[in-house]
Specification:
Layout: H1 2-7, H2 11-43, H3 46-64, H4 70-76, H5 83-115, H6 120-135, H7 140-146, H8 151-175, H9 179-199, H10 211-245, H11 248-261, H12 263-282, H13 289-324, H14 332-342, H15 344-348, H16 353-358, H17 362-402, H18 404-414, H19 419-439, H20 441-449
Helix pairs in contact: 2-8, 2-12, 3-6, 3-10, 3-11, 4-7, 5-6, 5-10, 6-9, 8-9, 10-17, 11-14, 12-13, 13-14, 13-19, 14-17, 14-19, 14-20, 17-18
Amino acid sequence: MIKRLLSGEALSARALRGVSFALLGYGGSQFLRLASNLILTRLLFPEAFGLMALVSVFMVGIALFSDLGVTPGILQSKRGDDPEFLNTAWTIQVIRGFGLWVTAAVLAWPMAQFYAEPQLTALIPAAAFTLVIIGFNPTSVDTANRHLLLGRVTLIDLATQVIGILVAVWAAWMWQSVWALVLSGLVAAIAQLFAYSRFLPGGRNRFRWEREAAAELIGFGKWIFLSTVAGFLYSQGDRAVLGKYLSIDVLGIYNLGYFMASFPMMLGFSLVRKVMIPLYRERPPAGSRANFLKHRRLRGALTFGLLVMSGLLAFLGVWLIDLLYDPRYQIAGAVVVLIASAQMLPVISLTYDQAALASGDSRRFFVLAAAKALFMMVCLLIGAEVYGLFGAIAGQAVAMALVYPVTVWLALKQGAWDPLHDLIMTLLALVLAGIAITWNWAAILGLMAF
C-alpha cells in the first residue's frame, strides 16, 4: 500500500513524495552545512563567520527588497505551464539578477562604513555576483515544484552544496581567509545552474516579453515585493541590528547558534513553501469539510514533528555546542536554547499564510508579513537596548507571540484556521520550552551576564 501511494500520480501521492524529498533536501542540506561548519571553524576564525553573516544579511536583503514573486507567481498561476509565460518570468529573473549585482556594488562602501568593516567593500560585490548566476536558473525548477516533482531538484541541490563545501574547505586550508567562503558560494551557484539546465526536463528558456504574462506576474508580485521587504526585517533583522551592538566575532558566534537552533523552523518553511501552495490550490480548506480535515491531519503531523525537534534542540543545545565546537563558541549554547524555545510559537501557525498565496491573495499575505516585521524590529530593538544579547533574543519571542492574532485573521479568510490544533500544540510548546529553559538555566544566566 505504501509503495502504491508513493508511486501514484494522485495529489496525495505527489504530496507525500514532495514532503519526503523536501525533508531529504533540507535535512541533508543542514547536515552538510553543519559538517562544513565543524571543519571551517577549525580552519578559520570567528570574525570570518561574522563578516559572512553581514554579507549574507546584505545579499538576502537586496534580493528580498526586489523580489517580484516570480516563483509563487508560477506556482499559483493558471498559465504556470505556458512556455510564453515561463520565458517572460525567466527574462524578469535575469534582468533582476544583474540589477541586484549593480546595487550591491554601489552599496558596498556605505555598508563597510556603517559596520566599520573595510573588507565588506570588496566582499559584498564579489559574493553578490552569485545573484547574477542564480538569475539564469531555468524555470524548470519552478515547474517541478508546481507539480510536486522534487526528486531530481533535491539531488541536484545536495550535490552542488557538496561541491561548494569542498571548495570552501580547500580554499580555507590554502588561504585561511574569509574569501574561501565567497569562492565556495560562486562555484556552487555555477554548478547548480549547469545541473539545472542539463538534468531537469523542460525546454530551454529564451528571452521573451509577453505583455499579458508580465502584467500578471508584476500585478501578483507587487504585494510579494512588499511582503519580502517585511520578510527580510522579520527573518534577518536580528543580525542586521546585532551587527551594530555586538563585536564581529560575537556576531559570528551568535550566527552559529542561530543556525543550529533554527533548523526545525527552516525545515518547516522549506516544506510549507514547496508543498502547501500546490495542496491549497488543488484542495482549498474552505472548499469542503473533507479538505479541511485533510489539512488538519497534515498540519498536525508537521507541527508535532517540528515542535519535538525544537524541544530536543533546546534541551540539548548547550551540550551540543560544547561537544561540537571549541570553547571560543561556548555562549552559542544558550543562544540555541533560547532561539529554539522562542521559535516554537511561530511553528504552530506556520502553514496558514500559504493558503493566501495559493488563492492569489498576496495583499493579505503582505499584511501578515508587515505585522511580523513591525513587531520583530520594535521588540528586538527594545530588548537589545534594555538587556543586550539576551534581551534581543527575548524580544524575538515576544514579537512572535504578538503576530498570532494577525495570522488568525488571515487564516479565517481562507477557511484554514484550526483553533483545536493551535491550542493543543501551544500547550505542548510551553511544556517543552519550560523543561529546556529550566534544564539549561545556568548557561542562560551566563548569557545574561555576558
